[in-house]
Design goal:
The structure is a single chain. The protein has about 180 residues and is an alpha+beta fold. The chain is built from two helices and 13 strands; from the N terminus they run E-E-E-E-E-E-H-E-E-E-E-E-E-H-E. It has a four-stranded antiparallel β-sheet, with helices on one face. A three-stranded antiparallel β-sheet has the order 1-6-5.
């Protein structure tokens, strides 16, 4: 039995769950999320707890058991408290500016970059070099953060670029000055 899949999902008081033909709808104070259940998994709602069960003990069913439980737990947490991801911009002249649902980024290219955010993701820019992304959908938030980071990934010599807050970068030593045997 999956260690993750067999754990029950507690539902905080303002969160409501509805199940209609393999579509789970989670509503809370921050919004509403939907997820289509795979055929190998079913859910059981008892009081303020949600349990994910396998319909069949197949290889695919075992694989989807823990995944589905985690997806539903993320939905419950998302509509109740939400998720945040913080990105740091490192580099001289590198900065970000938020205008509505768009981010304007100056990242050392010959032009500023306009990054359009999905409607479910909000961005706050602090100190021009710290971008905080917020959303109720954890998967979408991770995809947006990864897309932003890909615009200028941190380089290993000076560490310039966009990195996650708390990310530890492997730094490389630069070229050795006056190396012996250079003739």
């Amino acid at each position: 039995m999956s260690r993750v899949g067999k754990l029950p999902i507690p539902l905080p008081p303002p969160v409501r769950v509805k199940v209609d033909d393999a579509v789970v709808r989670v509503e809370g104070p921050k919004g509403t999320l939907e997820h289509r259940l795979p055929a190998q998994v079913r859910i059981e709602l008892t009081g303020q707890t949600l349990c994910v069960l396998r319909a069949a003990d197949t290889r695919e069913g075992r694989a989807l058991h823990g995944l589905t439980r985690r997806m539903l737990a993320n939905m419950v947490r998302g509509v109740h408290t939400g998720f945040t991801k913080t990105l740091e911009i490192v580099g001289v002249g590198y900065r970000a500016e938020s205008r509505g649902q768009a981010l304007y980024l100056t990242l050392g290219y010959s032009h500023p970059i306009l990054f359009q955010l999905p409607p479910a993701v909000q961005a706050r820019v602090e100190k021009q070099t710290v971008v905080t992304l917020e959303s109720i959908d954890r998967q979408l938030l991770g995809e947006v953060a990864a897309s932003l980071r890909q615009l200028r990934p941190p380089e290993p010599y000076k560490g310039k670029g966009i990195k996650y807050a708390g990310e530890v970068l492997r730094r490389k030593a630069g070229k050795a000055a006056g190396a012996a045997g250079a003739s």
